[in-house]
Amino acid sequence: MSINPYFSSALLGLGLFSGTTLAANLDCMVKPEMYVELSSPVAGTVAALLVDKGDHVVKGQPLAQLEASVELAKFNQAKADAETNSEVRNQKIKLEYATRNRTRYRSLATTNVISQIEKDKVETEVVLAEIELKKAEERRKSAMLALEMAKAQLEVKTVKSPIDGIVIDRYAMPGESVSDRAIMKLAQVNPLRVELIAPTEYFGLIQPGMEAEVRPELPAKKVVKATITKVDQLIDPASGSFTVRMTLPNASDELIGGVNCIASFDFATPAVSTTPTLPPFAPQSAAPVNPVIKR
């Protein structure tokens, strides 16, 4: 049953029907929520493709490995430098010795056994040892930062999936350059997107948040629930229609994108009195009386 909402409102106002349910079956299409043309943030050559067409992937999963022998060597060198503690340990030992030596000389200084020059010397040795220890610690901190940079340069050579989805196609093969080109195409299939074109007569009846029963062509005899997420607020005057978008959960990957479907809507109208409401009776004023003229 298809009724214009403005016309149905008029019928309800006249009490011609009450508490009815308007049903609509509209053609729709099930699509992936999004497509991703996956590329590398850096130029390079493909060393290996880790997934094939049709494979399911998860967010963060490595999909392709670029040639990274130079980056790997830099990472190993930076790791070795960052893990070396000998310089810091050596400077700590020197500082501890200078501190003990200063303590001994300070005790002798109270008995006037050592000269002021010798006292200044041991005090200076402690200060210099402290400075050298700080320099060693700063060099170690710089080595740690260099390790993080080398690690980041190595990681960008591994192309990872930004979404949970399916590999639709592969565009590059091992040995090929990926400069300014996509490596593969992914599709997000959970959730799926359902799109339909609704006639103008349903404008105002279909609202975001409503649910619809969706019957996709594949798999056959499968009925699922989709939730309306977007209703176009502009009507196409040429076709007399507007666009509706729905989200369709697909956690088990049973549903397939790229197939036609039927979306069923039920619009319940509120119950009203069946007795037409008439305007209140207004008594008419008495007819004017012609005046009597006496001669």
From TrEMBL:
Chain segments annotated as coiled-coil in the UniProt record: 119-153
Keyword Ligase set for record: no
Highest taxon of the lineage: Bacteria
UniProt keyword annotations, A-Z: Coiled coil, Signal
Residues in CzcB-like barrel-sandwich hybrid domain copies: 37-182
Similarity comment: family membership: Belongs to the membrane fusion protein (MFP) (TC 8.A.1) family.
NCBIfam families: RND_mfp
Protein name, as recorded: Efflux RND transporter periplasmic adaptor subunit
Organism of derivation: Methylomonas albis
Taxonomic lineage: Bacteria, Pseudomonadati, Pseudomonadota, Gammaproteobacteria, Methylococcales
